[in-house]
Write a structure and sequence with these properties.
The structure is a homodimer of 231-residue chains. Helix content of chain A is 40%, strand content 11%. With 231 residues, chain A is an alpha/beta fold. Chain A has a single domain, classed as Rossmann fold, CATH 3.40.50.
Amino acid sequence: MISINKRAVVLSSGGLDSTTVMAIAKHEGFELYSLSFHYGQRHSFELEAARKMAEVFGVQEHMVINIDLKKIGGSALTDDIEVPKDGTEESMAAEIPVTYVPARNTIFLAYALAWAEVLQSSDIFIGVNAIDYSGYPDCRPEYIEAFQRMANLATKAGVQGTSQIKIHTPLINMTKAQIIQKGIKLGIDYALTHSCYDPSSQGLACGRCDSCIVRLKGFKAAGIKDPIKYA
Amino acid sequence: MISINKRAVVLSSGGLDSTTVMAIAKHEGFELYSLSFHYGQRHSFELEAARKMAEVFGVQEHMVINIDLKKIGGSALTDDIEVPKDGTEESMAAEIPVTYVPARNTIFLAYALAWAEVLQSSDIFIGVNAIDYSGYPDCRPEYIEAFQRMANLATKAGVQGTSQIKIHTPLINMTKAQIIQKGIKLGIDYALTHSCYDPSSQGLACGRCDSCIVRLKGFKAAGIKDPIKYA
């Protein structure tokens, strides 16, 4: 019999970071429940990659939730705002970018919390990163700690004191190169991942948006060739 | 010109509490943006009441967001679990009831936070109540404070220090009778509100679920006749 204590909800975007997180959670012995979102992204290659990864990792259940962030607006990832290209490290770090989606991680983690509560799981994994985090406020350790504290006041288990929700962020202090090296060690085929904010209609990565630039830089620093095709 | 600082996002269910909150926010001079959710409720009378209230209060915009809590499950309000009837005050306070929806207020407030950020509003109103709260963990002051703290770490404005999100809970320490008296003073027509968890097919309140019992008791204690019809 599988212990219900070992269930984990893993937020999965089909990208490099969340795929590495899934490999880490599996390596730590958790039974995986992967959670992806259709949130009015400009393309669905991410979701396709997330579905493939759920298969590769043999998750117990893969759930895709439709959320209407497009209705709320405010981001280049969901609105008709142009995705910036060829950003330098300085311009990317200068301010919070237009690809920031308002309260996105808060909404994602809120759903993960709901599902964890129903599954009687107390472990949620998310691939946030404070180093290559592109200036998103909801990727910082202090934000994650505050969410965890709130989560333990929000739930039955927290109130009854039977278990404490833990938000696992295994990548938070790793460089992109370290993340890639860790994933390679755990056997990830990064050819199946999708990172680009603005892919071609065939799903080829642009190589020029902030996400591609950070990814390519990471592979270069890791001394590994990025196995995906670029346009 | 209307100052953008006076915009408020008000969570609205069409019920007694959130309607009173909307009247309070309007009385305090806020420009109202009402937010309701279609979350797989067993009926849509709530949403109809919320829509009417948006009209009555002349809100700037009323947004209804579809969220798939039914997919996640775990509650009598979204699943095929029977809604309990004829609960005593003791049985209702004894434990967290089956009508509890996992992480519901966390998900609702996360969307409110996203919308507030897009509207450049820093004020969110929610009708939680710690007295007649029916044992829901996410209606307690310590939960709301933790959410507010997290919200200020999650957002652009919080990080840039330009403004601080405030979660307003004007009802949190009021009895149901006090809420009703306050609402009457502010001119609310409670005949338009809907509270029942399990109404008839015509939308008549059952008078026997926890929500109806708390409502009826509140009107009795306030010395006012509840203007809605019961089955």
